[in-house]
Amino acid sequence: MRKYLFLFLTCLLLVALAIPACAPKAKEENVIKVAVVGPMQFMQGEHHWMGATMAAEEINKAGGVKIGDKNYTIKLVKVDSNEILDVAGAASAVERAITVDKVDLLMGGFRTEAVFPMSDVAMDYKKIFLNCGAATVALQKRVADDYDRYKYFFKVTPYNEIFLVTSDFKMLAMVAGVLKQELGIEKPKVAIIAEKLEWTEAMVAVAQARIPAMGMEVVGVWRPSDTATDVTAELTAIAAKEPHIIFTTFSGPVGVTYAKQRGELKIPAVSVGIIVEGQKKGFWEATGGKGNYEIFLNTYAKGVSITEKTIPFFDEFEKRTGQFPTYTAATYDALLTAKLNFEEAQTLDSDVLVPVIEKRVYTGTAGTSEYYPVGSSPCPPKCPHDLVYGPGRLTGVGTQWQDGELKGVWPKKEYGAVDDYGDWKFEYPGTVPFKIAPEVIDKFKGAKPAEKPEPTKPVEPAMNEYVNADLGFSVKYPKDWAKQPSETLLFYAAAPARVPVLFVDADEGATFTETLKKSLEAAGGSGFKVLSEKESALADGTKASTAAFETTLSGFGAKGFALGVQKDNKWILVMVGTVELLVPYEEAKFSEIVHTLQFKK
Amino acid sequence: MIQLFVIQTLMTGGVYALLAVGFSLIFGVARMINLAHTAFFMLAAYGMFFCSYQLGLDPISSIILSLVVTTGVGVLSYKLFIDRIREHHAIVLLITIALAMVFQELMLLAFGAHFREAPTLISGFMIVLGVRITYQQILSLGIVLVALLCVWALLTKTKLGIAIRATAQDTEIANLMGINVSRILLMTMGIATALAAVSGVVVAPLWVVYPYMWISPLVMIMAIVVLGGLGSIRGSFIGAFIIALVETSVVLLMPMGAFLKGAFALLAMVIILVVRPEGLFGVVFEEERL
């Protein structure tokens, strides 16, 4: 009996303790509650919190947020999502912040897998969620796909992964340019090393396709685990290939291991790419200084003035925490922008705030942020509520560890070019030239310029052939393109980098473009748009129609070239398309492929 | 290419052997699968970091202090949590994995989830037959050989060693012969933990120190120990180099699949176990465990 009594009393005590903790808190007067959501035991969460704290102090010191005739104080609520270790628990933490702490706004998030459910909870309650950490464009694409539900979801940092790849290649091009100029290396050899994670798959495939197109040679690809504790085997194998450049893609702890062991072994190659761990001040200590000369993409660099706000913010952050701010510290900008939005909307109502945020152009610590508008195309990468990429907006910076200091080395005006996003021939004040490690100079100094090969007769590329016996036609396509499964198309093949792709189809339709649209939509495409259309002819003189078009396929904005021939009430369609950000659109080449269509006599 | 295989296998195998021998020793004597073994390795690595960078001690003092403290923690853990339930193997497994996680969380609390570095004893590298090897790797290979010699000498040439082997063969008979089994087991735990700690201070400078660094080597040394034959020190030593050879081969022959090196190593273990279930040098009958 005593045992049951004890058990009962214990339960009673637990319930008594739990009730106050779970009970909804009364709404405080003249206070705006902001949930800062992140893995608080980890650097990413620490930086979320510190950035928001700095902004909250600044706002409150200046009198708070003025709505009507009242001044509201910002009160931050620390929400430990623990998302690095426990994705499932992250959504519960957000729900608690909304229902128990009664927060008015949420900001933060880091790991894509956790930001999906966390933002879903926020959308259920129609709360604004400012994504300050997850790059994945699929998150923002939801806004385009279901605006009514996801209109409360905005990106603050970083720009999406497609732009990340774009910047990565720009940095690689700069390194190749410097090697050519300084060491006379005409055709650098590149070793690709990337952790084996989903987000790096497309990057590796694209790197294999793009690097040769950039005038470099790929000598091999190494894929260690993201948590590998030892990569000396990979490094010694890489050293044996004698590359001039090692192109890195690391987000996990293996980035530190790699940099430390590469430095210890003094592998004579310039290391450039993505090493997320390299952005931390502790990287220098973690590698014992062996991470010297590592070059990687970043959001901030010490002493680099992206805007007039960058250096004061960077220095204050470093003073308070002893660390360099990483991209999740942009909660600072998120909160300062939120103040402007609250004051302009004169309310905390999410539905009123959405159009105000959509129009906001704000110069913060990492550049000027502006959102792609609703209906922007192609999405991805230009999805609504995602950040506009390019000079004058957000570019990121390339940084290099130089003798214990993290310096900004990219963008660099002499290695910039003009592209769809703007003119990259510029640099931020404080940017310095990147340094080549002494062992690289020693190894390649005086390297003879690569001998120009004797001009030879162009060799016809090897081609595969798709033959459709039923309809009596065939199409040739490059030999290294592999056949892919398709439920709607007659035939589908893709290059090793996943793009370009070849679609072959046959369907009934009134016009060529109508049938083309129908076929692409059946294959999962959307947002079809004809850019140009003209008449053409096959090699045997058969009349044909051609069109350049844009569409969205598998979530990516694609551009392609199509050819159609009408036979027995059916249009035989041959299309070659690409995702331009990954592999450029080459109309002449695509046209050549579609014109290989041949009918049996 | 061949020299790359040989040298890389020797370097990686040396590190694994050092870790596996301690694990094997405590299993051979106490029949105890100590899942906290690599957690002691992690503690010693943190000890090196803390003594060198936070207390500012010189590397030798840092090593000695780390070894002593880690061994002490190992012995204390055994006395407090394992000794009384050591006959219940499943519970020992649970308790040791729980201990490892407690150590991990304590390091997380004390040092955060940041990556740290333990100081390198000898910095730099040399080129042997065209292959770059760090001095620290050579040192670790030297230390593993010395440590194994010491273990061999201890077990074969000293009274304590005879007592340990007797306990390993038959605890009850050893007890009847007047050996204080509890004390022997405690001392064996101390030796095994010290070996893990030696690995920690020697290997940590080659790797990166962080609270989760114990997980990956634990899987690998379990594979090595099972492959070599549970409880066989000689088997663990040879198993370490077999696993290292498999890993090196995967990286060198299929670089795009370098992340699979662990999986291939485990596959090699499975294949050997299918052919020889007791492992390479497994003790089917109660033979001498050496």
Features:
heterodimer, A: 601 residues, alpha/beta, Rossmann fold, Protein Transport Mog1p, Chain A, 3 domains, 7-stranded mixed beta sheet, 7-stranded antiparallel beta sheet, 17 helices, 27 strands, globular, B: 290 residues, mainly alpha, 11 helices, disordered C terminus
In terms of DSSP E residues, the strand content of chain A is 25-35%
Give the low-confidence spans of chain B: 285-290
Strand order of the largest sheet of chain A: 8-7-9-10-11-14-15
Give the helix tally of chain B: 11
The profile of the biggest β sheet of chain B is:
2 strands, antiparallel
Cα gyration radius of chain A (Å): 27 Å
Amino- and carboxy-terminal Cα gap of chain B: 34 Å
Q: Share of helix among residues of chain A?
A: 25-40%
CATH-assigned homologous superfamily of the largest domain in chain A: Response regulator
What do the pLDDT scores of chain B average to?
85
Q: CATH fold name of the largest domain in chain A, please?
A: Rossmann fold
Helix content of chain B: over 70%
Explain what the structure shows:
- In chain A, strands 8-7-9-10-11-14-15 form a seven-stranded mixed beta sheet, with helices on both faces. Chain A has a seven-stranded antiparallel beta sheet with strand order 20-21-22-26-25-24-23, sandwiched between helices.
- With 601 residues, chain A is of the alpha/beta class.
- The model of chain A is unreliable at 19-23 (pLDDT under 50).
- Chain B has helices at residues 2-30, 37-54, 59-82, 89-111, 135-157, 159-169, 171-176, 181-203, 215-228, 233-253, 261-275; strands at residues 125-128, 131-134.
- Helices cover 71% and strands 3% of the residues of chain B.
- In chain B, helix 1 crosses helix 9.
- Chain B is mainly alpha-helical.
- The interface between A and B is large, with 41 and 46 residues.
